[in-house]
Specification:
The complex is a heterodimer of chains A (393) and B (139). Chain A has helices spanning 32-47, 69-77, 93-106, 121-124, 137-141, 151-165, 169-183, 197-202, 266-277, 294-304, 312-315, 334-337, 345-357, and strands spanning 14-25, 56-61, 83-85, 112-119, 205-207, 210-211, 220-229, 241-250, 286-289, 370-377, 382-389. Chain A has 393 residues and is an alpha/beta fold. Chain A has two domains: 10-125 and 220-241, Thiolase/Chalcone synthase (Peroxisomal Thiolase, Chain A, domain 1, 3-Layer(aba) Sandwich), CATH 3.40.47; 147-215 and 245-389, Thiolase/Chalcone synthase (Peroxisomal Thiolase, Chain A, domain 1, 3-Layer(aba) Sandwich). Chain A is globular, with a radius of gyration of 19 Å. By secondary structure, chain B is mostly beta strands. Chain B has one domain: OB fold (Dihydrolipoamide Acetyltransferase, E2P). Chain B has one helix at residues 20-27; strands spanning 32-36, 42-43, 58-62, 66-75, 88-95, 100-106, 118-127, 130-137. In chain B, a hairpin with a 4-residue loop joins β5 and β6. The radius of gyration of chain B is 17 Å and the shape is globular. The A-B interface holds A 127, 129-130, 134-135, 137, 139-149, 151-152, 155-157, 159-160, 163, 204-210, 255-256, 261 and B 10-16, 18-19, 44-45, 70-82, 85, 88, 90-92, 100-104, 114-116, 126, 130, 132.
Chain lengths: 393, 139
């Protein structure tokens, strides 16, 4: 592993010390706040840190009605913070929150940051479409045409990727099949029964070229992550995980405003995160790549530099991303098979941390020392990358 | 069995001071975009300021109504309000003047729609006094 040289920035002042999910799946007896709270308690227990120490809160959920997520969650948990953040970057908000928490801790604003997520999107029957303010540009110039959100936006990108690079539905299907193979080794995964490429191709069409099994699950669930100072991390319950690189960006909100549908914000955040970490894509032992749809994965792998632009379909086409392959990815089963309550990004972090701690049992990637998480939000709108290490950089 | 529920209404644009000239022209069969008098760029969707140079010297100009399909999708699982129309094609069209807009691509055979297809605008009534610009292959 190569390093650019001695560095010292805010990322070197912190560590991730606790991760957890709430209950996951179909949870009609739960509210969104309960899922934030359950995950928060489990993550603090995982860290061995008392709630009384928490002085930073970073929260968001999927419900439209919660206007002040960090305030609502902090009140529910009985926390009065000195740093508060509900930045909404959609599904990658949590990768950005780790970066924000690191900045806040390094700046001395707080010492223990609790990042939480909760959503009852499955029970609520929720989708992201409809209900937006009528004066918003997308309400006037996109919604009247009947594009199903979010699948339709990603379908437009997939169609163009196929046109430019010859990507096939079979190559997209490999992403879903590999996710299910990993999920079979995760007792918490929502879908564990095996599927084949033929099953994906034959599943019901949603918005061409994407079919049902190209699309993520819709579940209920929550998650939480605890970030603290390097000093406090010397006395926590489990081995700390260190922040090597991080970056966040967004291109646009609406799919119609995206400059080139096959180039995601990962093309901005990936190079920045790798440069900060002083490593290259070849150094990554395990990757957690946001898989809202199969096409999301192909384009993200290209933009992060794991393969050349347009080669994503061929990259995943030979079992490379499946268990036993050379590129272990989405080892918990991903949003396609494990869970997806609307914003999957927090679960990229929980799995990366567990892999770096060596806690993943049957699906453990042997000797994993460096992990990458890349979240994607909205309609390919936002992206945030984290590079995490089992040792300080 | 549950009792049938009425179909939800389709979302319709509600013109405001920023967008009314676009929708007024659409009712007359004309497709307008804004052009920045300071930097010359054509802009869509309509705004108060040019997103290229932040000038507020924006004027409305009529487009040729011609463009090419940038990408498209055939919608099978339609959102509420559109279910009785599926399958249908939603696309992004790059206008000859530069801006890209979302639209419907109309075709007798949806399989003949392709990326790069030359298309031209027509207008279809969506009710509520709104005519939506839609595109079909150039004749």
């Amino acid at each position: 592993m190569t390093r650019a040289g001695p560095r010292d920035d805010f990322r070197d002042r912190v560590a991730i010390v606790g991760v957890a999910e709430s209950e996951l799946g179909h949870l009609p007896h739960r509210t969104e706040l309960q899922l934030h709270a359950r995950a928060a308690k489990r993550a603090l227990d995982d860290a061995g840190i008392a709630k009384s120490e928490v002085d930073g809160i970073l929260s968001i959920g999927s419900a439209r009605g919660v206007r002040f997520p960090s305030m609502q969650v902090a009140e529910y948990l009985g926390i009065v913070p000195s740093y508060s953040d509900s930045t909404s970057l959609g599904g990658c908000s949590f990768e950005a929150y780790v970066q924000h928490a690191a900045m806040a801790i390094a700046a001395g604003l707080c010492s223990v940051c609790l990042i939480t997520y909760g959503s009852t999107q499955r029970t609520g029957g929720g989708s992201f479409g409809g209900g937006a303010e009528p004066w918003l540009p997308a309400s006037q110039f996109e919604a009247p045409y009947g594009l199903p959100m979010m699948a339709g936006a990603y379908a437009l990108a997939a169609q163009r990727h196929m046109h430019l690079y010859g990507t096939t539905r079979e190559q997209l299907a490999r992403v879903a099949v590999a996710a299910r193979q990993w999920a079979a080794m995760n007792p918490l995964a929502f879908r564990r029964e095996p599927i084949t490429v033929e099953d994906v191709l034959a599943s019901a069409p949603v918005s061409s070229p994407l079919h049902r099994l190209d699309c993520c699950l819709v579940t209920d669930g929550g998650g939480a992550v605890v970030v603290t100072s390097r000093e406090r991390a010397r006395d926590t319950a489990k081995a700390p995980v260190y922040l090597w690189g991080s970056a966040e960006s967004h291109n646009q909100t609406s799919i119609g405003a995206m400059p080139e549908l096959t180039v995601t914000p990962a093309a901005i955040t990936g190079p920045r995160a790798f440069a900060g970490a002083g490593i290259t894509p070849a150094d990554i032992d395990v990757a957690q790549i946001y898989d809202s749809f199969t096409i999301t994965v192909l384009m993200t792998l290209e933009d992060l530099g794991f393969c050349p632009k347009g080669e994503g379909g061929r990259f995943v086409g030979d079992g490379r991303i499946a268990p036993g392959g050379a590129f272990p990815m989405n080892t918990q089963g991903g949003g396609l098979s494990y869970t997806h309550p609307g914003m999957f990004g927090i679960f990229l972090i929980t799995e990366a941390v567990r892999q770096l701690r060596g806690e993943c049992g049957e699906r453990q990637v042997a000797g994993a020392r460096l992990a990458l998480c890349h979240g994607t939000g909205g309609a390919l709108s936002s992206g945030a990358t984290l590079i995490l290490g089992s040792e300080p950089r | 069995m549950s009792t049938p529920t009425p179909s939800p209404a389709k979302p319709l644009p509600i013109p405001n001071t920023e967008t009314a000239p676009f929708w007024d022209a659409a009712r007359e069969g004309r497709l307008l975009v804004q052009r920045c008098r300071a930097c010359g760029e054509h802009i869509f969707y309509p705004r108060l300021l040019c997103p290229h140079c932040m000038s507020d010297a924006l004027e409305w100009v009529e487009t040729s109504g011609r463009g090419t399909v940038y990408s498209f999708t055939i919608v099978h699982k339609a959102p509420p309000g559109f279910r009785d129309e599926a399958p249908y094609a939603v696309g992004l069209v790059d206008l000859a003047e530069g801006p890209r807009l979302m639209t419907r691509i109309l075709a007798d055979d949806l399989d003949r729609i392709s990326v790069g297809l030359p298309v031209e605008v027509s207008f279809t009534s969506a009710g509520g006094g709104i005519d939506l610009p839609v595109f079909r292959a150039c004749s």
